Amino acid sequence: MDRTKPPYRAEHIGSFIRPKRLIEARTAFNKGKLSADDLREIEDEEIRAVIAMQERVGVRVITDGEMRRNNWRDRFFENVDGFAIETIESSFTFTEDSGKQYKAMPVPRVSGKLRRREKLTADDFGFLVKHTRRTAKATLPAPGVVHFMAGDKALAGSPYSNRKMFFDDVTTIYRQEIKDLAALGCRYVQIDDTSLAIICDPKNQELIRRRGEKPDELIDDYICAINESIKDRPTDMVVGVHMCRGNAGKGVASGGYGPVAHKMFNNLAVDAFFMEFDDERSGDFSPLKEVPRDKVIVLGIVSTKRPELEPADEVQRRVEEAARYVDMDRLCLSPQCGFASIFNHARFTPDLEERKLAHVVELADRIWR
Fold it and tell me: Per the structure, how many domains does the chain have?
């Protein structure tokens, strides 16, 4: 049986590979060599094209591919006053499949009271919703992401003497954004969170302790921040949280969701969870036993890191394994992450990206008939 409201059986996380002309245009814009109007004209064309691609492969949920963004995360820093030009190094390290390591993106230091100068994604959504009749989904980085990568160190010397004061202003901005999205007719929001999934890794828990913070307190703070951000949403707005350990190689963390499962599934006031399950670093499905009966789980089994199409029998077997913990009617299927978390990064071609997304649709049709 298909689902009549989101999340749908065949889902996706939202970002898509930027075409070469858009990468070149955004690079020129970032260097001050292209006007905002000229960039927007190219973005508009490419968003219409990526909408057409999604409709062509048969998904029922449509995003703008994050075509107007530098990356999945930084819109908050870019559109909110109160951040310095100076940045602070991330506490966490990416590891590629080759073993090469590099630090996750730095974050700007907090220098003043936070105030939303521009909308985070509502204006983007306004364009999207005018160009599709299918369900349009808005994507936002989780409020905890604004703090997590550098921790309390980013607040030193700011007007915020503690995390609670900081998150009071962060979540106020998110409520403003949710209100603006709702006014445009948005009824489907995905919140992209790396913090809870990264905290699952014992090595990262130790990093957090070394910087003077307590992992359990951060879990509570980040869950509270999401709940505060969406507490005024319309009753018919579906909100899902996407859990991610980093969309490159071995990412930033390994290990199952067990350390956060009970609090995450039971305390987050959301409707759905988009869970990364594409390889062994995500652990097994047993933490899903904590999922309440009113929550939907979207299984991120199809990889956006590897070009090969996953064997249908293997994907079906894994979905059926997950159904030991969450009944089939509350399961859906998706890629484990977006196809392009950063505007100029792509692991394969747009044609293969389309084949991957079509594969998700075909697999969902097969599994749920």
Answer: 1
